[in-house]
Amino acid sequence: MTGCLEPVFAARTHPYRRLYPDMPGMGATPAGSVASSDDMLASLEVYVDEHVGDGPLLVIGESYGGYLARAITRRRRHQVAGLALVCPIGRAVLHADRDVPLHTVLVRDPALGDMQGSDFDDVAVVQTHETYRRTQDEIVVGLEIADQAALDRIQQQWVLSDDPEDAEPIMVPTAIVSGRQDASTGYRDVWSLLEHYPRASFAVLDRAGHNLQIEQPRLFTAITAEWLDRVEESLATWPGRVLGRAPSVVHEE
């Protein structure tokens, strides 16, 4: 997530302390005994306690990370000052239950050669040298070091015990962005989340699949920057007026 987010934060005047945790079974974090999404959420809460404490917190979540981001926001509504969701899982958590479009390739550079049957071909809607490069550098590199056996185990208990939206609405600046051609999480199940977030902007981008931030980088940057504008406006009246200190931003994928 550094590839799509660091350029956004580098352009900001207001400072942010950015945190990019590897969830259990992903990156450099061993899965240990983690066996469910409840366990994943608990590990994330420990991370926030250790690295953020009770200071102002912004949460950005992509895909499954968007599911956890909503859950951590529900639990820490006193602390979370902004929420952004990128191609998140919607109301239907399990893939078999999701209402998603069929995979479609809209742009393909013939110079890429035969990609048919590859992981890239199965997901990418815009298939160019640049989207291929970024997919390898920003996504595949993480998939290759994931503990797939542990993730398969966790997926057996993929649904959280507490629905992230089973509480009072979340009243902080929120951005939700989905791909019109996203065959993984789609956009229709995500739209159903909107009423729970009264301060949410919701965008469905054409020419974008599950790797929306790579396939529509300019729109992704603009939407994220506008969300941060709203967050900073809100922080000006946050309890304790925190504009003199850097809010922490936790990103989850």
Automatic annotation (TrEMBL):
- The entry's protein name is Pimeloyl-ACP methyl ester carboxylesterase
Recorded GO molecular functions are: catalytic activity
The organism's lineage? Answer: Bacteria, Bacillati, Actinomycetota, Actinomycetes, Propionibacteriales
InterPro entries in UniProt: AB_hydrolase_1, AB_hydrolase_fold, AB_hydrolase_sf
For this protein, the record's PANTHER family field holds: HYDROLASE, PUTATIVE (AFU_ORTHOLOGUE AFUA_4G13070)-RELATED (PTHR43798:SF6), MONOACYLGLYCEROL LIPASE (PTHR43798)
- Species: Nocardioides psychrotolerans
**What region holds the AB hydrolase-1 domain?**
18-217
Gene3D superfamilies in UniProt: alpha/beta hydrolase (3.40.50.1820)
The highest taxon in the source lineage is Bacteria
Taken from the record, one Pfam family name reads Abhydrolase_1
